[in-house]
Write a structure and sequence with these properties.
The chain is α/β, with parallel strands linked by helices. It is built from six helices and 13 strands. It has three domains: 67 residues, Histidine-containing Protein, Chain: A (2-Layer Sandwich); 72 residues, Histidine-containing Protein, Chain: A; 63 residues, Histidine-containing Protein, Chain: A (2-Layer Sandwich).
């Protein structure tokens, strides 16, 4: 485990080790890793969007990483190229088969392999599920998730609900995180040990019924 006194070189070594450890990353040695003041910059090329996300997630999991800049390019093999029409059809079919995603409120636009999602959903997990379904498709070069979360109602005790959920979560230190809610927007503040914990706290806040936005001001020490 990386200690609190880790240098940028230590962090880089840990990130590179995490890339080698992840079986979803096909060519980990082809990924460039640079670290400055705890901020990781990733460069190189991958052949799928799902691999790009796997590389980014691997960096987020490493202790002492404060932020990640993902400059990895997606270069599709010739056999992986698909027309925008084919890709749009594949996206719509995939979303319709996903029991989580309400496709009747969604609009899909594909331009040069880049997928844009528009429309309204009631929950953040539906918004995330729609994006995840897209980036697993061959030929996708990127996803712009413009879906808007519009819940039917906002509970009066939503702040307390989020705090209790953080207390129940084994991956977050609720005592280190403060929660404020205003006009259906949750604001998180505090200090945590890893970016993964920061992301988990945000996911917990998004799980609350009625939340339409989360402002994550948590810092990584």
């Amino acid at each position: 485990m990386t200690q609190a006194t880790s240098t940028d070189m230590d962090i880089r070594n840990d990130v590179e080790a995490e890339l080698l450890w992840n079986p979803r990353i096909v060519h980990p040695n082809a990924i460039g890793v640079a670290v400055q003041n705890g901020v990781v910059t990733l460069t190189g090329q991958v052949s799928t969007y799902v691999e790009k996300m796997a590389v980014e997630s691997a960096a987020f999991r490493v202790s002492q990483v404060k932020a990640v800049a993902d400059d990895i390019a997606i270069v599709l093999p010739t056999m992986g190229e698909r027309t925008d029409t084919d890709l749009a059809t594949a996206v719509l079919t995939t979303l319709k088969w996903d029991a989580i995603v309400p496709t009747d409120t969604l609009e899909v636009v594909v331009t040069k392999g880049w997928v844009t999602l528009k429309g309204d959903v009631e929950w953040q997990f539906q918004r995330s599920a729609a994006q995840s379904a897209c980036y697993r498709l061959a030929g996708v070069k990127g996803v712009s998730n413009l879906l808007t979360v519009k819940p039917h109602a906002v509970p009066a005790d939503i702040k307390q609900q989020i705090h209790k959920a953080l207390l129940r979560n084994a991956e977050t230190d609720a005592n280190a995180i403060s929660v404020e809610v205003h006009d259906a927007t949750a604001s998180l503040r505090g200090s945590v040990r890893t970016l993964a914990e920061k992301q988990e706290a945000e996911a917990v806040a998004w799980s609350a019924r009625g939340i339409t936005a989360v402002e994550n001001h948590i810092t990584v020490y």
